[in-house]
Amino acid sequence: MITGSTDGKIMVRRCLVTFKPFRIFVVGIGFFSLCFLMTSLGGQFSAKRLGDSPFTIRTEVLGGVESRGVLRKISDMLEVILKRMDSLSKLDNTSSTDARRLDELSSAINRFQPAGLVERIQAIAQNVSNMAIRVEQILQNSMVQGRVVRDGTSSQCEVPRDPRFPECPGKVDWMRARWTSDPCYAFYGVDGSDCSFLIYLSEVEWFCPPLAWRNHSSPPTQHTQQAKPPKRQAAFRTDLSVLLDQVGAGKESLSFMKRRIRRLTQQWATAANRLDAKLEQRWRDQKKILVHVGFLTEESGDVFSPKVLKGGPLGEMVQWADILTALHVLGHNLKISMSVKELQGFLGVPPGRGSCPLTGPLPFDLIYTDYHGLQQMKQHMGLSLKKHKCHIRVIDTFGTEPAYNHEEYATLHGYRTNWGYWNLNARQYMTMFPHTPDNSFMGFVSEELNETEKRSIQQNKVNNMAVVYGKEASMWKVQQGKEGFLQILHRYMEVHGTVYYETQRPPEVPAFVKNHGLLPQHELQQLLRKAKLFIGFGFPYEGPAPLEAIANGCIFLQPKFHPPHSSLNHEFFRGKPTSREVFSQHPYAEQYIGRPHVMTVDYNSSVEFDSAIREIMRMKVEPYLPYEYTCEGMLERVHAYIQHQDFCAPEPPFISANLSRQGSAGGSRMTGPLFVPLPNSTALSWASNVTAPTAWPPLSSLRLLVSQEGQSCVESCQSAGFICEPAHFRFINNKEALHGLEVQCEVVDSEINHILPAFSVVRRECGLQREPLLFSCAGHSPKYRRLCPCRDFRHGQVALCRDCL
């Protein structure tokens, strides 16, 4: 056996024992870097001397980015060295020359002394690099000179040429050249030999065939099918104390979220009891759920937390607080991550730089994150992200359309942006408002008033009081005619603002405005309960504040955009993965609430604006909150998604010829039409005498329409009083649908295009969709009419069809 490696191994083992209690706290400096420094500085650091703990070293050493990078490099190299030393210690018949070389390594390590610490660290890094090369040479020589018998067979392995695994030889070549580029390979037992490469590539990854001489009774790795644990029933929760502890502390953003959770505790409890009664105690699977709030991690920059008390945007934090609460109240097993380190721990990410898959099967049924978190998962999950992405739900405020989501299509057709291109099912993106039917509508909640509170508000409204929507002074800058309509408003009403300032009144706010400064939520509510009008300047888009104002009895007045704002003409939307056109500041309020609670006017017309203000002063409205933005509405919606949406189960191809008629002898094949006309409608529905395939939403909700040229299915379905349902596209992407709509086709092609299925009236050409990820409600073309899968929806809950619960 090799004995020369003993000293070097003892040094590293000593570090393992010494620093193990502190390991969880070492953030900015690699663990093995600390060990290396401790030994190289003459053993002057001791676990018993807390003053010289890892915290001391961190303070003294980490003076800049350069030194941190050097320390990370040392850490990674020492991880590899230790792994190689372990391999060397197992080898027999090694020459005394090799042992002497390892002695030299050990003595070289012990010769380092502190002098000009950062400069010495840089020198150490170079020496460690040299040591790594020398250990590699020793290892290779030892393996050539004499190898032990491993697992009952010689460790000399030939690279298989198996047509079922065509990438195997290339992957082995890559491993030979690059296996030291990430410590995770050594973590999985790779030691530089072809045998270790093949073991890794067949058992951890899946590019090579299993080795016949390996013991395959060992615990399966992440690409092996796992036995599913028994299902557990979810039970509604009304105690939020455990959730509040899980959210954590230390940031103003987290404090804001916890205050919101506490304030709405009673409303969540009442909603849980109502939904429990509505569902009649039916079984609900309890899911293991990870929530990783990427935009609040330090690694993403977290620009939100410092602005919470300075008028910054709160919409995302409102939504995340409500998502966390809904998942907890629904009774699911919840883990919350607010840092990359927590994410790695929860997922079982191996040490290193993210090149390797997870150490085992995914420990969660669902993962809720955002675009920042998705990027972090890609960095640290390696190949596992592609395998497990069906479990992910992306909270996405403004939506992601299919053309932007499909990476290859987006790149080839000009839809590539800094976001999007993840090749998810578009319904895995979850929006704040139901503006993109291709995505799922997650939403948030507003506080619901009881009848006593509603009567009190109506009695105490100040008829000539207006509150301006805009907490940041920049929103008040005199541009685009703001001074004109503010002067008109001032003629009729007392104008109030809630603009943040530190010492002096913001100069952008006119002198006639009574500015209250940034108000806590309960004080803002009191202000809104007195005010008659809540007025928007055109920005921010689609925030929660207008719904809160309407729920407190205000009329919301907002500007009409002409032309509509989009990524083509407005900087705010540029780069976002959507072509959606926004016709007002808050399209949901305009479309789904409307008059008398919402008025949308042209601010550039002083006559129209003046008329709107005078009309508002004459109107009386009651507080109003759409059901889908109540606690019960959100619980109902999230419950339905969790129990019914499954993007991991493969969808079998829909073949209409395999369908059968209900009540026919022996289930005879279908011979009549698949789609039949609805009474008093141009829409078609699924034939009631044809057995419908299992689907969610169920096919009983399907309403098949054809759009006008240049019209999207979003618009076509809305104009008929329905909602476009992307899950139904696969059932209408066929000749039967074209025949049912009496479309004349001389040619029927199958292509990859986000406007398909569609047809050209002039050319009599019909096209069906070949790529399911590109089924799109949003797509439109001036040359084509589209086949649109619409559906009905529940009153006050546009996300769910009538039979969806």
UniProtKB/TrEMBL annotation:
Topology class, membrane: Single-pass type II membrane protein
Enzyme class: transferase
GO terms of molecular function: alpha-1,6-mannosylglycoprotein 6-beta-N-acetylglucosaminyltransferase activity
One BP annotation, GO: protein N-linked glycosylation
GO cellular component, one term: Golgi membrane
Domain of life: Eukaryota
Keywords: Glycoprotein, Glycosyltransferase, Golgi apparatus, Membrane, Signal-anchor, Transferase, Transmembrane, Transmembrane helix
Subcellular location: Golgi apparatus membrane
Recorded catalytic activity of this chain's protein: N(4)-{beta-D-GlcNAc-(1->2)-[beta-D-GlcNAc-(1->4)]-alpha-D-Man-(1->3)-[beta-D-GlcNAc-(1->2)-alpha-D-Man-(1->6)]-beta-D-Man-(1->4)-beta-D-GlcNAc-(1->4)-beta-D-GlcNAc}-L-asparaginyl-[protein] + UDP-N-acetyl-alpha-D-glucosamine = N(4)-{beta-D-GlcNAc-(1->2)-[beta-D-GlcNAc-(1->4)]-alpha-D-Man-(1->3)-[beta-D-GlcNAc-(1->2)-[beta-D-GlcNAc-(1->6)]-alpha-D-Man-(1->6)]-beta-D-Man-(1->4)-beta-D-GlcNAc-(1->4)-beta-D-GlcNAc}-L-asparaginyl-[protein] + UDP + H(+)
Regions that span the bilayer: 21-41
EC annotation from Swiss-Prot or TrEMBL: 2.4.1.155
Pathways involved: Protein modification; protein glycosylation
Domain Glycosyltransferase family 18 catalytic: 184-790
Family assignment from sequence similarity: Belongs to the glycosyltransferase 18 family.
Name of the molecule in the record: alpha-1,6-mannosyl-glycoprotein 6-beta-N-acetylglucosaminyltransferase
Higher taxonomy: Eukaryota, Metazoa, Chordata, Craniata, Vertebrata
